[in-house]
Amino acid sequence: MTPDELLKIMPLAKPRIAAFFSPLCAAMEEFEINTPARQAAFLAQVGHESEQLLYVREIASGKAYEGRADLGNTEPGDGVKYKGRGLIQITGKANYIACMMALNIDCVHRPELLEEPVNACRSAGWFWKTHGLNELADAGDQVRITKRINGGINGLANRLALFQIAKEVLA
């Protein structure tokens, strides 16, 4: 993939392409997102979740995640502290702990580390691989990929539109 190809997939990423292109490519290599099908699916999801690389921190406050034991948010303030970060929006203390252990990034004590380009990309790649999304991309199952990332099908139409563009660009 080239920077021009990435911009064809995510035209809104233009102001951030210099910061994100190399870390994004490195993360795709590290986490075996290494076929056109996997790359198209990954870029579509990342494109949606980050608004085409514009956001690496969830816009909402995170208060909706307070007390969510399923996310590991058991202490007051955990929802806000561990709101979505990175290109796939790692959410919840349990996911931050798992990410920290896997990537050796102390994002539990310094959640903002997941906002840095390299860590934002690596955390997305890590989440992708550890949740079996390469296999779902190989099977072409964009709906199940969306459900594993989002918990539902929010933004599915946008994700599918980005996927179609990415497929054409990367073919």
UniProtKB/TrEMBL annotation:
Swiss-Prot/TrEMBL GO biological process terms: cell wall macromolecule catabolic process; chitin catabolic process
Molecular function terms, GO-annotated: chitinase activity
Database matches in Pfam families: Glyco_hydro_19
Gene3D superfamilies on file: 1.10.530.10
Entry-linked InterPro entries: Cell_Wall_Dynamics_Protein, Glyco_hydro_19_cat, Lysozyme-like_dom_sf
Residue ranges constituting the Glycoside hydrolase family 19 catalytic domain according to the UniProt record: 50-132
Protein name, as recorded: Chitinase
UniProt source species: Noviherbaspirillum autotrophicum
